[in-house]
Amino acid sequence: MPKKTFSPIFLQIPVTAIIWSLVGFVLVWLIYSFLYSTSPGGQPTFAALNNLITMFSDSRLFNAVLRTIYYAGVGTVIEVLLGMLVALALVNFISNTTVRFVVLMIFLTPMALSEAIASHTWLMLLTPQGYLNSILRSLGLPPVGWLSESMALTSLILADVWQWTSLPLLLIYAARVSVPQELYEMASLERLSAFKTFRVVTWPYIRNAVVVAALLRFIFMYITIDKILLITFGGPGFATETLGYYIWMQSFSYRNISYAATLSLATLIGATIVAYIFWRVMTRR
Amino acid sequence: MRSSHILGLIGLAIFGVFILGPLYITIITAIKNINDVFTIPPKLIPYADFQPSSEAFDFIFNTRGKYTFVTSLIVASTATAIALIPSLLAAYGFSRYPKAAMNDERSFFTMLTLRMVPPFAVVLPIFLYWNQLGLFDTYPSLIWTYTVFSIPLAVWLLKGFVDDVSPSIEDAAKVDGYGFLDRLRRYIIPILGPALAATIALVWLFLWNEFLFALKLGGSRIVTYTAYLPQLRVGQRVQWNVLGAIGVLGAIPPLIILILFRKYLIRVYLGR
Question: Searching chain B, which residue's CA lies closest to the CA of residue A230?
Answer without folding.
Answer: B230
